Amino acid sequence: MDLIIVLGAILLLVVLIGVFKINAFLSFLFVSVTAGLCLGVPLDKITQSVEKGIGDILGSNVVIIIAGAMLGKLIADTGAAQQVATSIVSKTGIKKVHWGVALVGFIVGIPLFYNTGFVLLVPLIFSMVYQYRLPAVATGISMLAALSVAHGFLPPHPSPAALVSQFHADLGKTLLYGIVVAVPAIVLAGPVFSRALLKIPAAPLEAFRPQAIAKENLPGTFSSFFVALLPVGLFALMTLLPFVLHDKYASLISFLAQPSIVMLAALIAGTWILGLKKGRNMQRVMLMYSDAVKEVAMILLIIGGAGGLKQVLTDSGVSDQIAGLLQQTDLSPLFLGWLSAAIIRAAVGSATVAGFTAAGIIAPLIGQTHTDPNLMVLSIGAGSLMFSHVNDGGFWMFKEYFNVSIKDTLRSWSIMEIIVSVVGLIGVLILNNFIH
């Protein structure tokens, strides 16, 4: 009976978000309370469970996500992202432009949230399309595949960062594993798949042509790359330091390796290098950061709402029941995590909602099956990208920006997301064999 209630709760969440278009945070709250009542959680404990779940998941993620948003906003508004893009494409040349824009999408996509990266980089793609008469969809897909992979796989993006916390994974290892899995997914879904899209007709709208920053006002190439890649470099460094330094430095390394400390250090460095050093006063930089917080406020609320539902399921004991049943199947826990997220993604349309909802179901299974939590983050992340279609805002952003038909959006954008998801799962399963 309890399992039927959980399935009903997930279905209710899908209906509230997908059919009635109710805000995802409010939907999570309503479903959390409803599930608690139906699962027999004492009345005086339901709100305590919801509030504890919200507090626990936000407490360990607010700094990471907010600092990541601020750094991404700084990189975008100062022209560092534009500098990275133009530098890479100028090196690869037009004949290899698909590889160049994929690399741009990956590097810029690490610190930038997906929507920000899309709005910032797609106009740069259009400028090349107009100037060199390139196929718009084929060129754009290569970059968007990389942006999508970074969004689903790599901290400090909200979903993977929050899942790292929820599964008690190691953020540095998750990032390194994520890069290993991300590369083949980007290559196959981007430059390779784009060859099949060369003849799709597209007429990018003039309104989306870029208002580029003058070249003389852009930050230097080294500064742009350095700040964009600094979080990755710091996480990698802190993961490797324990292997080369004496044990007496263990507590210091442990402190410096905390994700919030890493992101804070990256933000301080970026503030100086791209902000104050370039003549921008502190007030102007802080205004950028204030705007960044506004952009991710709803994401934080959705994360909190998902944490509330997860805690209700945990306190009711049903999570352990589900884990026990799943453990009896012959399917890999990593595959089950991917499948759960993929089904919810197809139903709801939100990668964030899909990832967090699946995590609440799968979390107890990790300890019982001794599954690597870092790989489970990536598996659910890959599943959360599966099959973007008409219920996903990203689907419509692509259609409208590139001015293509729904049919061509399905055969380009949607197939790209499927490839990213499936290749990501395969990469996780292969990596699991090498690690264990």
Automatic annotation (TrEMBL):
Which superkingdom does the taxonomy of this entry point to? Bacteria
Keywords from the UniProt entry: Cell membrane, Membrane, Transmembrane, Transmembrane helix, Transport
What is the topology of this protein in the membrane according to its UniProt annotation? Multi-pass membrane protein
What would you give as a GO molecular function for this chain, any one? gluconate transmembrane transporter activity
User: Which residues span the membrane?
Assistant: 28-46, 58-76, 96-122, 134-154, 174-198, 218-243, 249-275, 296-314, 334-363, 375-398, 418-435
Provide the Gene Ontology terms for cellular component: plasma membrane
InterPro entries (alphabetical): Glcn_transporter
Could you confirm whether the keyword Hydrolase appears in this record? Answer: no
Please state where this protein is localized.
Cell membrane
Family affiliation: Belongs to the GntP permease family.
NCBIfam families named in the record? gntP
This one is known as Gluconate transporter
Q: Which organism is it from?
A: Niabella ginsenosidivorans
